[in-house]
């Protein structure tokens, strides 16, 4: 979840500093819908998310149908999450060294092949070992794609339209996420979860074709000044880049990670966000498994109901993504991010106690709406305040640090739910999320980006 800037940072045509658009980005003054590269990129990601939402439901259902254990579902989530953390250590260095367009296309093609194996093997019977082999690889490749995705958005639209662009990407991805889970639930009910994974594989192929027609602006080989947003906190103790941090200079992977960590530590708001999100991710990575288990075993519903609830929940993501830029302009980053985390906690606390499907769907929508607002805010801030040539490394360091404990959290959360039940576990996790929001009021996040 990113740090917000002030009003002018969110207005089309303005730079993050409130002056001219970022140099080298000729489309920065035009409306997003008139920028061809962004429009194609937008379509590619929407299609990819449409298919990916199939796997979001199908993979846990494959495990649940074979074992009946929410702890085994959580273990698969944890294994995939651990692979993401390991990949995040190196992802920033890779993204900052290679052609972004080729990297994104390659990631899509690799995931298409890996996910495509699952429905073929499942024709001969369930093979759980395959999921534990394929998912970590897909998650690692997905982390490379995600870091490249963050840098690609800024390259396409510039700093002045980042929040708007991120909001639109998240909103349309969520729109696809409404149809995706609904269809995934129906496909899983009719043909089995493995068939739904096959749809996900095909979506990555379509995304790769779309990305082939996107052209990113050439990255500058000279160091640029750090773009800072109006009313956004300046990294007063951020380090001055050393020669090995200059664009075009080759350094070791661990040095690249250290460079990103040093930048995060030097920015008061990013430092606070990283610490708080470390705990938030630990608590929430296993939420999807918890909801599916609650619907299937606690409430006794079928795969179609799971898909319907997930689709209804995705409506919350749409609402949050569409509202975030307007709310941020009015309230500033600090209030928007803090309220978002508190909303996530309250919704999470109620999920385990909800006994009616509509209530579960509504609470899921509230959680995802708040998560979308907080996530869009924090990503936009990181893009705004980070120099272009460091963006991949800073993003990689940020995700590595705040996501490091999430796989363990998913395993612990689902194990506790199997032992103690979903209701007390959800209440405890939600209460801690609310406590995180209160803690944020004692950090520089509170004063960040006030209108």
What would you say this structure looks like, in words?
The protein is 73% helix and 0% strand. It is mostly helical. Helix 2 (70-97) packs antiparallel against helix 14 (406-420).
Write the layout of secondary structure elements.
Blueprint: H1 36-67, H2 70-97, H3 100-122, H4 128-157, H5 162-191, H6 193-211, H7 253-266, H8 268-284, H9 287-298, H10 303-331, H11 333-351, H12 357-385, H13 391-403, H14 406-420, H15 422-440
Helix pairs in contact: 1-2, 1-4, 1-5, 1-6, 1-9, 2-4, 2-7, 2-13, 2-14, 3-4, 3-6, 4-13, 5-6, 5-10, 5-12, 7-13, 8-13, 8-14, 8-15, 10-11, 10-12, 11-12, 11-15, 14-15
Features:
451 residues, mainly alpha, Growth Hormone, Chain: A, 15 helices, 73% helix, globular, disordered N terminus
Order of helices and strands: HHHHHHHHHHHHHHH
Q: Can you tell me the overall shape?
A: globular
Helical content (DSSP H or I, runs of 4+): over 70%
Average pLDDT: 76
Overall structural domain count:
1
Based on helices, strands and strand pairing, what is the structural class?
mainly alpha
The CATH homologous superfamily is called: MFS general substrate transporter like domains
Number of helices: 15
CATH topology: Growth Hormone, Chain: A
Indicate the CATH architecture.
Answer: Up-down Bundle
The total beta strand count reads: 0
Please summarize the sheet with the most strands: none
Q: Tell me what portion of residues adopts beta-strand conformation.
A: under 5%
Distance between the termini: 19 Å
Taking all Cα atoms into account, the compactness measure Rg is: 21 Å
Low-confidence stretches are 1-28, 220-248
CATH class: Mainly Alpha
């Amino acid at each position: 979840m990113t740090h917000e800037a002030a009003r002018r940072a969110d207005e089309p045509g303005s730079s993050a500093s409130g002056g001219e658009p970022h140099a080298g980005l000729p489309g920065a003054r035009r409306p997003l819908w008139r920028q061809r590269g962004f429009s194609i990129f937008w379509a590619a990601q929407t299609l990819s998310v449409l298919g990916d939402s199939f796997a979001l439901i199908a993979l846990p259902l494959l495990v649940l149908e074979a074992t009946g254990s929410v702890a085994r579902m959580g273990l698969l989530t944890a294994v995939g999450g651990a692979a993401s953390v390991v990949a995040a250590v190196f992802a920033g260095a890779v993204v900052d060294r290679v052609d972004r367009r080729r990297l994104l296309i390659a990631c899509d093609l690799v995931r298409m092949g890996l996910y495509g194996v699952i429905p073929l093997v499942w024709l001969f019977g369930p093979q759980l070992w395959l999921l534990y082999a394929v998912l970590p690889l897909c998650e690692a490749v997905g982390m490379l794609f995600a870091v490249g995705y963050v840098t690609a958005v800024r390259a396409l639209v510039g700093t002045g339209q980042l929040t708007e662009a991120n909001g639109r990407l998240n909103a349309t991805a969520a729109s696809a996420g409404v149809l995706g889970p609904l269809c995934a639930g129906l496909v899983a009910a009719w043909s089995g979860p493995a068939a739904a994974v096959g749809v996900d594989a095909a979506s990555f192929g379509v995304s790769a074709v779309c990305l082939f027609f996107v052209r990113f602006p050439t990255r500058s080989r000279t160091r640029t000044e750090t773009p800072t947003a109006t009313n956004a906190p300046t990294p007063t103790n951020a380090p001055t880049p050393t020669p090995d941090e200059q664009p075009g200079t080759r350094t070791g992977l661990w040095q690249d990670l250290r460079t990103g960590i040093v930048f995060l530590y030097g920015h008061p708001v990013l430092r606070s966000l990283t610490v708080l999100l470390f705990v938030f991710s630990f608590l929430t990575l296993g939420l999807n498994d918890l909801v599916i288990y609650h619907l299937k075993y606690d409430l006794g519903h079928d795969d179609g109901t799971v898909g319907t609830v997930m689709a209804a929940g995705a409506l919350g993501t749409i609402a949050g993504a569409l509202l975030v830029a307007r709310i941020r302009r009015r309230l500033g980053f600090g209030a928007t991010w803090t309220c978002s985390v508190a909303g996530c906690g309250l919704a999470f606390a109620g999920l385990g106690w909800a006994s009616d499907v509509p209530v579960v769907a509504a609470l899921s929508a509230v959680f995802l709406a708040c998560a979308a607002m907080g996530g869009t805010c924090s990503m936009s801030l990181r893009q705004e305040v980070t120099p272009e040539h460091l963006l991949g490394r800073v993003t990689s360091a940020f995700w590595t640090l705040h996501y490091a404990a999430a796989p363990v959290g998913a395993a612990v959360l689902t194990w506790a739910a199997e032992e103690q039940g979903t209701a007390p576990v959800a209440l405890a996790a939600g209460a801690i999320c609310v406590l995180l929001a209160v803690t944020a009021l004692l950090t520089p996040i509170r004063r960040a980006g006030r209108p």
